[in-house]
Write a structure and sequence with these properties.
The protein has two domains: 55 residues; 73 residues, no CATH class. 54% of the residues lie in helices and 0% in strands. Keywords: Signal. It comes from Albidovulum litorale. This is Peptidoglycan-binding protein.
């Protein structure tokens, strides 16, 4: 800041000295000529001060610059290819939640004829042991009904073998 003040002062003194030397013979001039010389001297001094201030101060105003467009980088992409999905059907034996379907009572029941299977379910339903549909298939309700009837009459030991289950069904159908 101090060098700026020094420059301004020096340029102001130089402008005044020029104006004084030029104005000395101007006493013979009229009032308008003298005012003209004073105005030119003042303009020179103010111009020098403004010029010094502009050159010494850093630019504080920011200017807008348009961003340059940069195209995106080109990357190689292989063309998409479609592959027909392959379907391979497979059958899985259903896994049952308990061993009732592989028990000797179930095996013997499933080997009976459809008429005999419905007859077993009908008899158990008539006696109040079976509450499902008379469809001739061995399921959890049929299993519970057979086990309950066997427990109330002859005991469930007879149903532990396939031969004993056949005898049980033969006596049930009767």
């Amino acid at each position: 800041m101090l060098p700026n003040v020094r420059r301004t002062t020096i340029s102001g003194i130089a402008a005044l000295s020029l104006a004084m030397t030029a104005a000395a013979p101007a006493h013979a001039w009229g009032k308008k000529e003298q005012d003209l010389v004073k105005g030119l001297a003042a303009a020179a001094i103010i111009g020098a001060v403004i010029l010094n201030n502009r050159n010494s101060q850093p630019a504080t105003t920011q200017r807008y610059t348009q961003p340059q467009y940069q195209p995106p980088a080109q990357t190689y992409r292989a063309p998409a290819s479609y592959q027909q999905p392959t379907y391979q059907p497979s059958y899985q034996q259903p896994s049952y939640q308990s061993g009732i379907y592989s028990s000797p009572a179930a095996q013997a029941f499933n080997r009976l004829s459809a008429y005999e299977r419905r007859a077993v379910q009908t008899r158990l339903s008539n006696w109040g042991y079976y509450h499902g549909g008379i469809d001739g298939s061995f399921g959890p309700q049929t299993h519970r009904a057979i086990m309950a009837y066997a427990g109330d009459t002859q005991g469930t030991n007879q149903l532990s073998t396939t031969a004993g289950a056949y005898d049980f069904y033969a006596q049930l159908i009767g």
